[in-house]
Amino acid sequence: MTDAGGLIAFTAGLPKAELHVHIEGTLEPELMFALAKRNRIDIPFKTVDDVRAAYAFTRLQDFLDIYYEGAKVLRTEADFRDLAGAYFNRAAADNVRHAEIFFDPQTHTDRGIPFDVVMKGLLQAQDDARRTHGLTSKLILCFLRHLDEDAAFGTLDAAQPWLHKLAAVGLDSSEIGHPPRKFARVFAAASDMGLKRVAHAGEEGPPEYVREALDILNVHRLDHGNRALEDADLTARLARTAMTLTVCPLSNLKLCVVKDLETHPLPRMLAQGLRATINSDDPAYFGGYINDNYAAMAKAGSLDRGAFALLARNSFLGSFLGDAEVSAHLAALDAYLSRA
Ligand code: HPA
Ligand code: ZN
Fold first, then answer.
1. Enclosing H/E stretch for 295
2. Ligand 1 mutation target, pool 26, 67, 200, 258, most atoms within 8 A of CB
3. Phi/psi zone of residue 202: left (φ > 0), alpha (ψ -120 to 50 degrees), beta?
4. Distance 324 CA to ligand 1 centre (A)
5. Helix, strand, or coil (residue 104)
6. Which of 2, 13, 213, 292 could form a disulfide with 199 if both were Cys (CB 3.0 to 4.6 A apart)?
């Protein structure tokens, strides 16, 4: 099949991992309203359509302002369980077999919600997803980079009882003006605690921020990484070291990081040997879950079946699963490819 419909169906069926999704970014307007009602919280929208109409962004900060506002409806353990449960159900339907999800504890603890409430809700949803769908998952604690180093250390302290439940720390929120080096000591401390490291870099920030993420934060993965392509030496280094890039096409489009998907850098990334993956970022805000992102790139016309199979393969290779688990997922992927 060479038509876009056939290619989209092929990508939908691929077993895949999702490595870049903010759980707060999976809050659908319908759930936002339900939780606002359950918790008796006023939200600045009258209808679900009002909410969706507000999702017109020209840059990252436009989105972040509304994303932090939306997160205010999340208050109880049940809220976090329901939020993550809805995401896992949605992801399972997209043939996601493993998800490594970001959460932003500071967005909640700064409103007086205890760290433990967030963790307990998320852990319950993770258990449910494993039992119901066989979908495994890991948690990545993200520091908000617009806040200071002390605040990040406070969050790392609050995480101490839960270290065994966390795979990694990450870095998100407003990139420009908040370079990775600001969190050098926090990431070093997290590393000493046995946590892996990832960071958003090169979404809006320059290649220099990508270098800092590599050299100062010692990241295992780069989230986005688009602007690394502006620097040929850096691109060659990323290819040589098989650094995973968690690329988010619909996010890039919605936040005007790219002009359109026809010229999205993903095909160039693959051509230059980068270990790129496809992810949804904040699917409730950016117009689609992981398969919508695969489908949007299929429609854009610059990737073929082989490229999509490689992207799915990269998603398992770039995960924090152990070698045996990765091999099992790759075998399932190969079985799918031999049938498709
Ligand atoms: N970039 C930075 N911070 C974020 C994002 C993003 O795409 N989504 C949620 N927090
Ligand atoms: Zn992100």
1. helix 290-300
2. 200
3. left
4. 31
5. coil
6. 213
Per annotation, catalytic residue among 100, 203, 204, 212: 203
Report CA(21)–ligand 2 centroid distance (Å): 6
Best CA proximity match to 271, nearest among 243, 307, 242, 232: 307
Q: Can you list the domains of the chain with their CATH numbers? A: 3-339 (3.20.20.140)
Give 102's strand partners.
Answer: 22, 140
How far is ligand 1, taken at its centre, from the CA of residue 116, in Å?
Answer: 23
Helix 290-300, helix 4-13: angle, nearest 10: 150
Which residue in 142, 166, 167 sits closest to 155, CA to CA? Answer: 142
The structure tokens 């307007």 sit at 29
Is 69 annotated as catalytic? no
Q: Which ligand is nearest to the CA of 173?
A: 1
Mean pLDDT across the chain, nearest whole number? 97
Strand partners, 199: 222
Neighbours of 336 (CB within 10 A): 16
Residue closest by Cα to atom 4 of ligand 1:
173
228 and 234 Cβ atoms separated by less than 8 Å: yes
pLDDT digits (tens, 9 = 90+) for 233-289: 999 999 999 999 999 999 999 999 999 999 999 999 999 999 999 999 999 999 999
Q: Tokens for 55?
A: 């999702």
Higher pLDDT, 158 or 1: 158
